[in-house]
Amino acid sequence: MSKASAKTSKSASNAAIVQAALEKLRAAGLRPTKQRIALGALLFDGRDRHVTAEALHDEVRGAGADVSLATVYNTLHQFTEAGLLREVVVNAGASHFDTNVGAHHHLYYADSGELHDVDATDVRIEGLPAVPRGAEIERVDVIVRLRRR
Amino acid sequence: MSKASAKTSKSASNAAIVQAALEKLRAAGLRPTKQRIALGALLFDGRDRHVTAEALHDEVRGAGADVSLATVYNTLHQFTEAGLLREVVVNAGASHFDTNVGAHHHLYYADSGELHDVDATDVRIEGLPAVPRGAEIERVDVIVRLRRR
DNA sequence: CAACAGTTTAGAATTACTCTAATGTACTGC
DNA sequence: GCAGTACATTAGAGTAATTCTAAACTGTTG
Ligand SMILES: [Mn+2]
Ligand SMILES: [Mn+2]
Ligand SMILES: [Zn+2]
Ligand SMILES: [Zn+2]
User: Fold this and answer.
1) Do residues A11 and A45 share a domain?
2) Using an 8 Å Cβ cutoff, are A63 and A38 in contact?
3) I need a labelling partner for A131 at 20 to 30 A (CA). Which of A32, A138, B52, B110 fits?
4) CA of B81 to the centre of ligand 2 (A)
5) How many CB atoms lie within 10 A of CB A92?
6) Are residues B106 and B70 in the same domain?
7) Sign of torsion, CA A148 A141 B53 B102?
8) How far is the CA of B70 from the C1' of C12 (A)?
9) Nucleotide nearest to B71 (CA to C1')
10) Would you say residue B90 lies in a domain?
């Protein structure tokens, strides 16, 4: 594979991903700026990802885009409000933003910080108390904390 | 009730709580210092409590003891390591330290920050994937996030 | 009660994140 | 195409929670 063709095929697949990101942004009523497209292209490529603001910032800059950390935070929160991401808190240090917005739970490797999804349709939780009056459930999170043996 | 007798009875019940805290510390191999006893007396009075470092700091100083914030943090972590407390992370802002160290889950009121315990013996979680090889479960947390309706 | 290990503390440092206010850019209507 | 405007980005300052440092203090042991 020549350098040129590699570059071309990379550009081609990028173009499709960028296009998809752009459409997601429009559908969410967010202006498709250069920065939001760059971040969206990394986040909305079909994989289930769990990113930290810092990690995503490093990643987007590594990919050649010039996006400030403030914009990464702004964008992660806007995406979350738009329902394109979900915020997951597993440790006191930092929030993780999750590209899987369906009902699911997590396996958390405390030592590496890795998060893995567990589809919620397979999981039944029984014996929880009745929802207190005047309150409603926003979400139920199950976190299985794992340790390497 | 006279001022004097109120003071006496308060001192008497305090003495019992202080004594219990002191024994807990010795059993855990922690030197029973003035600061650790003051914090222990607040934490180990039999109630199930969920405190933040800042809140406990305010509380212990309100009770007349002179304990620095650094010591509150040190002590909360030492108590946690000793199994006298457990750390609960429900929001990105701050850690909560839980005096209930038995197996249990939480109801979390997102708006007020309140945490309520749900005994784990009543709760069955089915359909979780097998524990990955090379890993073992350290703990399973269920957090029911509630919103006022 | 001396000696030492363990503890406390003020204040500086770090980390994750938010805010401010100035500059830049995407959309709308012409 | 080209304002005009509302929205977006950003550097850098600010904040909140927590940790670190290193000097002073205290509980325990012999
Ligand atoms: Mn947030
Ligand atoms: Mn901790
Ligand atoms: Zn997930
Ligand atoms: Zn609890």
Assistant:
1) yes
2) yes
3) B52
4) 10
5) 14
6) no
7) negative
8) 13
9) C8
10) no
